[in-house]
Design a protein that fits this description.
Strand order of the largest sheet: 1-4-3-2
GO molecular function: lyase activity; metal ion binding; methylmalonyl-CoA epimerase activity
Keywords: Lyase, Metal-binding
Order of helices and strands: EHEEEEHEE
CATH architecture of the largest domain: Roll
Largest sheet: 4 strands, mixed
Oligomer: single chain
Number of domains: 2
Radius of gyration: 16 Å
Structural class: alpha/beta
Strand content: 25-35%
InterPro entries: Glyas_Bleomycin-R_OHBP_Dase, Glyas_Fos-R_dOase_dom, MMCE/EMCE_epimerase, VOC_core
Protein name: Lactoylglutathione lyase
Amino acid sequence: MKTILFALRVSDLERSLAFYTTVGYLKLSTIPLDDGSTLVWLRLPAEESVSLELAHHPADGPVEVSGFQHFAIEVDSLPETIAHLTAAGLQPGALELPGGPDGPKISWLTDPDGYRIELVEWPPSGPPLP
């Protein structure tokens, strides 16, 4: 068993698609539904298949993020990622070291609907194992 994707309901599909492609996601497919809704499947370059679905349901009105904490994206170099995203017009947060100098480096990014994304660069020792 494995997780294959998660879906985020978005208020403005084009705005969200522009945001996530700027982050680095690649658009795989657009699926129009009979009720006027649209699903868009995305993946990051290092992923083999879809990992994020943007779900646009215009009849449901604007998205109100509630109860959702965040999702995380692993990056190779957090300073380079922050610089790239900032140059592209996004607003990643400052680099943080929550585990001290030998732990992971993180930064926070918020999408157009208010979903929070944690950008993570693992230390040379790698991610924590169970």
